[in-house]
């Protein structure tokens, strides 16, 4: 099961929804109980929490949510993974990276799903979705921040970007579209 805060009218609304969930013990408890009910009803083996674009002030509350969620669902024999933005610790880090405490999240969860994609993206110049050097730098960063190798899960892009360098924009391209381009050219 995947839970995220991305498909609201705006990124700001998704950020506020997450903040409301993280606000205090009561809201976290209700959220966790709702997740447990859903997981048990549909017999999910685990859950991936993919809350992005959090307020920096929610950093510790997010880590606390993952601890409480893991404590609850691990007792049910289920796993918790957390999606985190790729972080290299340098200028190539995702701008949302500081919101995630890799060390605490690695302690509290069963795995960190590091989103190693979109190194170049529609706001940057063209390039590989995830270069080898950048991906390796994200792994080194995670290891440096006490994430055990057994808890590192790499998110791999199943898509790409089609850059129009004349217009200066990029179009999302699905795997199917990319394979069509490959066959055509």
TrEMBL record:
Q: Which UniProt keywords apply?
A: Hydrolase
One Pfam match? Glyco_hydro_18
Entries under Gene3D superfamilies matching the protein: Glycosidases
Q: Which GO terms describe its molecular function?
A: hydrolase activity
Highest taxon above the source species: Bacteria
The record's listing under InterPro entries reads:
GH (IPR017853), Glyco_hydro18_cat (IPR001223)
In this chain the GH18 domain maps to 1-185
Protein name, entry field? Glycosyl hydrolase family 18 protein
Q: Which organism is it from?
A: Niallia oryzisoli
């Amino acid at each position: 099961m995947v839970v995220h805060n991305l498909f609201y009218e705006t990124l700001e609304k998704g950020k506020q929804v997450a903040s409301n969930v993280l606000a205090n013990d009561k809201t976290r408890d209700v959220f966790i109980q709702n997740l447990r009910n859903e997981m048990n009803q549909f017999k999910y083996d685990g859950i991936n929490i993919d809350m992005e674009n959090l307020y920096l002030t929610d950093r510790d509350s997010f880590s606390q949510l993952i601890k409480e969620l893991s404590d609850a669902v691990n007792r049910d024999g289920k796993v918790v993974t957390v999606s985190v933005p790729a972080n290299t610790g340098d200028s190539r880090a995702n701008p949302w990276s500081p919101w995630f405490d890799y060390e605490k999240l690695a302690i509290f969860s069963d795995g960190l799903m590091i989103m190693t994609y979109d190194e170049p993206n529609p706001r940057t110049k063209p390039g590989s979705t995830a270069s080898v050097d950048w991906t390796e730098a994200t792994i080194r960063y995670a290891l440096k921040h006490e994430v055990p190798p057994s808890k590192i899960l790499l998110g791999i892009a199943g898509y790409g970007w089609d850059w129009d360098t004349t217009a200066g924009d990029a179009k999302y391209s699905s795997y199917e579209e990319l394979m069509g381009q490959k066959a055509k050219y």
